[in-house]
Amino acid sequence: MTNDSLQTEAQLNADFQARIDAEEKIEPRDWMPQKYRQNLIRQISQHAHSEVIGMQPEGNWITRAPTLHRKAVLLAKVQDECGHGLYLYSAAETLGISREELIQALHSGAAKYASIFNYPSLTWADIGAIGWLVDGAAIVNQVSLQRTSYGPYARGMVRICKEESFHQRQGYHIMMTLMQGSAAQREMAQDAVNRFWWPSLMMFGPHDAESAHSAQSMTWKIKRQSNDELRQKFVDQTVEQAEVIGISLPDPDLKWNEERGHYDFGEIDWKEFNRVINGSGPCNRQRLEHHISAHEEGAWVRDAIAAHEAKKQQRANRAA
Amino acid sequence: MSHHMKLYEVFIRSRRGLDHKHVGSLHAEDAEQAMEYARDLYTRRSEGVSIWIVNSSDIHASQESDCESFYDPLDDKPYRHATHYQLPDKVNNM
Fold first, then answer.
1. pLDDT, tens digit, for every residue of A25-69?
2. DSSP symbols for A12-56
3. Is B81 part of any domain?
């Protein structure tokens, strides 16, 4: 690199950071550091994959929902998750990566998705716990991301947040209904919370000090609040929701800290977190295999669309 | 004179971070010229920071007369809305 182009690069970087510091959004055709682009592709695609893989644990209960109404609600929710995945894939594509490359990275294991979806949904109450806790945690994160520095990502988040509220409320409503039911139903609800509470806290990622991408992402305002801040916010808002329906959160260290003005809570089992992230959770293989087989079994549809398009083209050419 | 210039649709982003919004259309010979016309016609008071020019003929639009059958499957799903779920007052801001 010549001295001149080094200087230009430094100037571009300075202008870029100044724009971010001034709370202006970055738009697709703006100059941006290569690492900003890569960091965003990683984060947005991981987010998109999470929405799509997240359909599996919930889809597991569509045919077994306890009433027709609950079934219609669950169908609508799973359809929303698919839609959210598509909003996010197209936001990632504005950064110059193709849909095929994104899916390929998911299938090869190069791209990750939220580790929470590697846990099984064993009972109907799990659908309540997923809506209340998993979507609740996701919303805390997504509300913060509405202010992310990349325009298409921020706009996608605004759209998604508008739609998410019903997801959490329907989950809470399932839990509330179970908690008003028989002893067996209350037990089922409590069991679901016992299994989903800690993985929900893990959704916010490692502690700030150990988070690989956090510092740079905060400087670039890709992330607006740290993992630990967001996790605290989620704990604080969830404790009261649990009390209202009389369900307990499985953490003996959970208690109000007057001085901090927040709830204290126990340490997350980071060994489990790493185990699941690195592929050894209860359902990692099943989730990926299912996505790959759905993708492969759907190949004939894509082929048929292409063949139909070619035939139409041929007809048009003949007529011309 | 029977020569008609092509029709272009104009979309303007008023501020960084916002979507481009349709503001109107204009006639021009090509996209480059349309861009300049759009600047003169639609941003005389600095209404925008970015302009999109699209060939009007490239826009495929749904018909309002088809509204009923097109949107019908979506109309009877009140449970897609957060307000459908009655929650206790204490947690109703969820």
1. 999 999 999 999 999 999 999 999 999 999 999 999 999 999 999
2. HHHHHHHHHHTTPPB-TTS---HHHHHHHHHHHHHHHHHHHHTHH
3. no
Please tell me whether the interface predicted TM-score (ipTM) of this complex is above 0.90: no
Q: Is B1 within 8 Å of B29 (Cβ atoms)? A: no
CATH (domain of B5): 3.10.20.520
Which domain range does residue B31 map to? Answer: 1-59
Q: Do B50 and A27 touch (CB under 8 A)?
A: yes
Q: Exposure string (b/e) for A123-147, b if CB count within 10 Å is 16 or more?
A: bbbbbbbbbbbbbbbbbbbbbbbbb
* B74 within some domain: no
Q: What is the DSSP letter of A130?
A: I
Examine residue B92 and state whether it is found in any structural domain, yes or no: no
B85 part of a folded domain:
no
Chain B partners within 8 Å of A244 (Cβ)? 88, 90-91
User: Cβ atoms within 10 A of the Cβ of A174, count?
Assistant: 27
Half-sphere exposure of A203 (CA within 13 A, CB side): 31
* Contact (CB<8Å) B91/A155: no
Report the predicted TM-score, pTM, of the whole model to 2 decimal places: 0.91
- Which residue of A30, A140, A164, A169 to mutate against B (max B Cβ within 10 Å)? A169
**B56 near B34, Cβ under 8 Å?**
no
- In this model, does residue A15 exceed pLDDT 80? yes
Q: Tokens 């018909």 identify what position?
A: B63
Q: What integer pLDDT is reported at residue B63 of this predicted model?
A: 82
CA angle, A227 as apex, A225 and A232 as ends, to 5°? 90
Tally of domains within chain B: 1
Mean pLDDT of A189-196: 98
